[in-house]
């Protein structure tokens, strides 16, 4: 009550307006990207047409012709999806074991997994190129991209799943054991249905990270398995000749992920802070 | 017996995969860092295949530390960029989280708008900022400065005030493609992307703040600043530490933004320098890589000490 009594008319108006202003400032670059995507390349660099212009869809219609957008988009979808599935297939059993049969090493194993995330990718760039090009002959294949995306996200996936699984009462799993349910049955029929929300948001977040990854996908592919990151990176357009079409293809690359991201805001916090902030 | 074996078996694939992923490339990097290994050499063709007979000992490290001109600059620049981003995101994140934590009309939409930048892919982030926003001629940066100059020129025409405005110089837009300024550009775009992350985490944490304690403090006549200083900030200590840790992990290996903003203009960080070396001198690239690992480990040990314990309970 005291708070209400203190807040003046001024602050009632001021703080919301400030909050809205901050929100619009933060969203503005994305808005500008989408806005520019409806301009022709010529209009996009004319100050006269900064705000008023004749909107066109030609940048979107010509996306395939200009950039071969769909090929890269399909590569992104394939690699991100399979990497996520693979990470879950490997991660769910591991997190299950750690959450329900912890040993005194579990904590160390988890921290060690996290530490693999801290290994700077650039430090192993050349060995990776060397191995995959000269030795395993899987350079620039979907298989390689899927594997690498899975590996770099595996620690976070296991951490997230672990924090979700830990919340489930042990007794439920024990009861399943008493009834003679197999381990696979426990995971499939008891654990996954109970932790469904957690598994889904883990998958969603992993997918987003895979989609946005821009080191290995750029460095370990040339054409065959290149994703959208590589497409954008390769068309940075320093001369500003193609702002319109570049905006369209960029919008098409980020819009689906931003929308997905809106749905998993809450889980993002728990996932990225390893359950330490709730 | 089975009670212990099964959990181990279930963890085995994950542990093995991560172990291989870490050990194989890293031991190769370590090996390459001790030999002479270049991709093209007319003078010494034997150096183009990795072999123990090209042993160089600590020579690559010496070369990187004392002869390669960019190494120390890249280290400094990495640290400068990461530190600036950490400070800015935490400060902005705190301010915005406190701002959005009150209830007001449209709060849900405000949250959605603020969080959006976090999901933009880094490559798009960099292309968007450096071209459409920061470009000194065609970007909004250039257009804004041009508009301002036009406005001043217009004001000069006025009879009385004109004399005052004619003293104003024409402003030059800042180009963000020089070495120093492009580091600022990178800091700006990454801060834009990661402040939402800090906001999200601080906001979540603020919701679990003890309201009764706060009301008691208000009744005791504590002003807003001392409430923040003595109640909110201690409550946020752990989230702040976590935000610092996660961001440090991500930003030490910052690459896409540097690559797009700085190609050829000297704004290097360690990952970029390694890429530079790796076009020919693999020995030097590997030695630099080992330095990057050491730097990351120093930060990681420090941070895990700070946060690691509290993660588990």
Q: Can you walk me through this structure?
A:
The complex is a heterodimer of chains A (278) and B (313). Chain A is an all-alpha fold and 278 residues long. Chain A has two domains: 2-58, no CATH class; 70-272, MetI-like (MetI-like fold), CATH 1.10.3720.10. Chain A has 16 helices and no strands. Chain A has helices at 2-6, 9-36, 41-44, 58-61, 63-67, 69-100, 106-116, 125-135, 142-166, 170-178, 183-194, 196-212, 216-219, 228-234, 243-263, 265-272. Chain A starts with a helix and ends in a 6-residue tail after the last helix. Chain B is mainly α. Chain B has two domains: 69-134 and 180-312, MetI-like fold (Orthogonal Bundle), CATH 1.10.3720; 136-175, no CATH class. Chain B has helices at residues 2-32, 59-67, 71-100, 107-115, 122-133, 140-156, 161-165, 179-206, 211-219, 224-235, 237-252, 256-262, 270-278, 282-312. The longest helix of chain B is centred in the N-terminal third of the chain and has 31 residues, at 2-32.
Strand content of chain B: under 5%
Give me the CATH superfamily of the largest domain in chain B.
MetI-like
Distance between the termini of chain A: 26 Å
So, CATH architecture of the largest domain in chain B?
Orthogonal Bundle
Sheet of most strands of chain A: none
Strand count, sense and closure of the main sheet of chain B? Answer: none
Shape type of chain A: globular
CATH fold name of the largest domain in chain A: MetI-like fold
Helix fraction of chain B, binned, reads over 70%
What is the string of SSEs of chain B from the N terminus onward? HHHHHHHHHHHHHH
Query: What low-confidence regions of chain B span 5 or more consecutive residues with pLDDT below 50?
Result: none
* Average residue-wise pLDDT of chain A: 85
Low-confidence stretches of chain A: 1-5
